[in-house]
Write a structure and sequence with these properties.
The chain has helices at residues 19-32, 60-69, 74-85, 90-93, 119-141, and strands at 2-8, 37-43, 48-54, 99-103, 109-114. It is an alpha+beta fold. A hairpin with a 5-residue loop joins strand 4 (99-103) and strand 5. Helix 1 crosses helix 5 and helix 2 (60-69) runs antiparallel to helix 3 (74-85).
């Protein structure tokens, strides 16, 4: 099993309700034969963290390519690519932080961003599920 982790920095654009991801996942399946399954969506300060998985074992560079194709933050994926080039293992390079801190001048740490389940993340998951179901239904009936 391979984990796919997306950092989507867009709360109100085309990714905001999961429909675009629901379109992309079947397209990737059709083009590559890779089945992706949604695990969870959490809201962050700037967007969402989306966790998916596939039963197929993928190379590190294939994971990065998939994450880019699915709309993950391009800068994060550039950092991931650098980490892979430096030989870091998957547990070290493909990270989504549940919390981010800022260190104060006195050394104290303040949480500046934290993942959370919210109504927006639930709407994202519902939008994904409905779009996926509608797409599968249309495909089964050959509706365009």
């Amino acid at each position: 099993m391979t984990d796919i982790k997306l950092d989507i920095d867009d709360k109100h654009g085309p990714f905001s309700r999961g429909e675009r991801l629901a379109f992309q996942i079947p397209a990737i399946r059709k083009m590559t034969g890779i089945f992706l399954y949604l695990d969870s969506v959490t809201e962050t300060a700037h967007g969402y963290h989306v966790r998916l998985h596939t039963a197929v074992t993928l190379e590190d560079y294939e994971i990065i390519i998939l994450q880019l194709m699915l709309g993950s933050d391009w800068a994060r994926e550039c950092w991931n690519y650098g980490r892979v080039l430096n030989g870091e293992s998957m547990n070290e390079w493909n990270v989504l932080f549940e919390k981010k801190w800022k260190r104060g001048p006195d050394g104290s740490k303040t949480v500046i961003s934290q993942e959370r389940r919210s109504w927006l993340s639930v709407v994202f998951e519902i939008g994904f599920a409905l779009s996926s179901a509608t797409g599968a239904f249309k495909q089964a009936l050959r509706i365009r």
